[in-house]
Predict the structure.
Amino acid sequence: IAQPPVHNTTTAPNWLRGVPVSQNTPRSPSYHGLTPASASASRVGAGNQNRNTTPELLLRRALFSLGARYRISPSSLPGRPDIAFISSRVAVFCDGDFWHGRDWPTRKEMLARGHNSRYWVAKIQRNIDRDKAIVQTLTQLGWLTLRVWEGDIRNDPNKAAKHILRIVARRKNS
C-alpha cells in the first residue's frame, strides 16, 4: 500500500513535518469574474483584519484581568491560534460569526440569495473545513482546541474568559 506524501522535513515548519499532504483539500474560492455588490461593500471588506479584532481584544483583556498569561498568535502552531496557553497546551480561536459560519444552515440560505452567492457559500464552507482540519492537526499534536464565537465574546467577555480558564486549569491538573 502506497503511503501518502508528507510535507518536506527541511522546508515545512516543525509542526507540519511528517504530516500527510491532503490531495482533497479544496482551495479557497476565486474572485475571478466577481464584482463587489457596491463601493461601500468593497470598502468594508477591505477593512477586515485577521488579527487583533475587537472580540480578540475583549477576550484577551478579560483573560488578563483574571490573571491569565498566554501567547498571542504563535506562528509555531498550526492555524496560528489567537491565544495559546503553552504549558497546558490549549489553543483558543475567536471565530467571527460570519466568516466561520455560525448557524451555517441558516446563513447559507441567506448567502445563496445574495450577491456573488456561489463565491460566498464556497468561501465560508472552505473556512469551516479549514477550521476542522486545524483542530484535527492540533489534536494530533496533543493540543486542546477551543473555538469561541465572536457574538458570545461580545455579549460577555468575562464569561467566555472564565470558561476558558476552567478548562486550562483542568488541563494543568491532569
